[in-house]
Every structure is written in structure tokens, then in C-alpha cells.
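Translate sequence into C-alpha cells.
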Amino acid sequence: MPVSKIPEGITGPTGPQGIQGIQGPVGAQANRLYLFPHTFAVTGEIKVPSGDAEYIPGFYVPAPTGQTVRIMGARARINSGTSVTYKLQLNDVDVPGSLGLTAVPAGATTTLATPLAVGNEGRVNVVVTAVAGIPKNLSITVYLEYSV
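Result follows.
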């Protein structure tokens, strides 16, 4: 049986807008990671602290609700002298993997094998534990990773 063709005529006006459909489910969100440097700078001769003398003040780390913060590592350098040995502390407790870090004139970077989580208002300190060759002008940058 032959197929008949549907007659074609002129197109009419567009009809009214239909109602909006329901909202679909919220998709998964990936965490965003941001690396922030915080630098300690100490001018002049660097010495091992004794009480309040030669003490290097720390800084507080904000960790707003919904964010996590971790200490990832550090980079340190002295301008002259042989070396400075230091450690990182979080709330006056040694950061695992940070004992015996070294600052030399060429600079040295350390990445912690296990990054350490920092709670809101955690205080990060640098403590000089030994010096060699009258080191001067210390710069230590601590790297913090924020996950949002």
C-alpha cells in the first residue's frame, strides 16, 4: 500500500511558555586546594633561644568552618654563616617530621611526609635548635594548605 504524504501548510504562532520543571539533584563538589606561604624573617645574628631572648614569635592560623588546614612543609635560608637547625611547632608541640630542619645560604626546602592538620586558631612557631658559623638573616617560609 502506498504511503501518503502529510500535507504541509503554514506554521502557526508559538504557544505559551510551559511551566518550569523540578530542580535536579546537587552535583558533587570537588575540594579546592590553596597553598599559602607564611614567612618568618629574623635579621641580624641568629642564636638558639634562651627563655624570651632570641625567641621567634609565631602566628595564628584561621580555619573557618568547612575548611581544613594542613602544614605541608617549609623553605628556609640564611644570608651568611654555615647553618641554622630548626623545628616547627604547632601549639608548642613539635610537628612530626620537622625536627632537625636546616637553613643554609643556598636555601633548603622540606616537605613533610605526613602533613599535619591545624585546628582553628592553631599557633605555628619556629624554634632554632642549633647554629653553626655565626648565621645571619634567617628567612623561613611555612607552607599551609587550605582545602575549601
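Note: The mean pLDDT is 90.
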